Amino acid sequence: MSNGSDYPPVKEDTFCKYVLYYEINNSRVRLWDVIILIPNALFVLFLLFRFNKAQLKLRATSSPIFLTFYTLVWGNVIISVVRCGVSMTVNAAVPLGGLVDKVLWVTVRFFLLATEMSVVIFGLAFGHLDSRSSIRYVLLVTSLISLAFTITQGTLEIVMPDDMFHIDTGNYDLFGHGGMLFWFTSSLVFAVIYFIILLLPWTPMREYLALPSKLSFYVYILLLTLLDAAQATGAGLLAWGALQSGLCVVDVTTWMYFCLYTPLVYRTFLSEFFSVSQPSIMFSYKAQMDEPLDDEQVSLPHQQSFSSLKTDSDYIYQSNSVYDSTLFEAGGTTPMNPMYSASLQSPDSIASGQSLDNILPTGNSQNMRST
């Protein structure tokens, strides 16, 4: 059975198809997997290099949104690296090896699509909420939608493989994204959805949605719109006979999505938070609204002033971000909670001689000793 068009498949000696199945030195290591593995592995090294700093920043804020985004980024890149590694060890020409390879492809697609939808839905509908319950709800909904999508894609891959991705010399099928008709339809739908999101600030819907105001969010949406439109174009060209050009477009957009999407999420939504030396809002009290207070907890005066501020999720999507290092220069007006400075320091640095006298104002440190 075929899930493609009635046109003959692309010749195997065509470069854009050859690069998909060519094995380096006649091994099981395919060039296509190496091309995808290298940028993902480099991004893993980048995350590892900044892991300690990121851990301190995440520990210093009670807001769950940053940890959620950071976990999604790690999950996406790890599963991508695992897929490449496993695909290099299995023989795709063997039925079981080909099945494993396709299952891994759709698994990666599941994680990426769930992240893709979570970022957008949280920004449009729940960006003004910064609680664990709202984040869990968003993740649940997007995971179910993504699961339905990937199950459909995987079923089409196994039951109705696309003739465009059949390799005659090895008598096996490459991963064909569920077939060109499925990929064309789904990519077109996503492109239209993202294009509508770009238009929302100029529609009456802006009165009912807490639309993000950060330019980087709309740049992110624009890039996804262009990517999905290009994927729909490539899949359409393949489905309706423009074989060579269509497959080349499909290859380029596939590489961009599986290699550059996760770094794009990090750059758009996390880089600012991790790059500044000291964020000005340290504790998100609104995030704890759904948790009862203990009897021994005391409401301090400075807590009341902080509770009126926006939550940390707002600063991911809104342009008036408080993560501005200039607020802490001489003459800055925004007070910084001194305990945050202590939270950024490792236990070793504090034990080695840095006491609270170096962190708290003189009066505060004396008051703490007196108590």
TrEMBL record:
<keyword id="KW-0472">Membrane</keyword>
<dbReference type="InterPro" id="IPR018781">
    <property type="entry name" value="TPRA1/CAND2/CAND8"/>
</dbReference>
<dbReference type="Pfam" id="PF10160">
    <property type="entry name" value="Tmemb_40"/>
</dbReference>
<protein>
    <submittedName>
        <fullName>(diamondback moth) hypothetical protein</fullName>
    </submittedName>
</protein>
<dbReference type="GO" id="GO:0004930">
    <property type="term" value="F:G protein-coupled receptor activity"/>
</dbReference>
<comment type="similarity">
    <text>Belongs to the UPF0359 family.</text>
</comment>
<keyword id="KW-1133">Transmembrane helix</keyword>
<dbReference type="GO" id="GO:0005886">
    <property type="term" value="C:plasma membrane"/>
</dbReference>
<keyword id="KW-0812">Transmembrane</keyword>
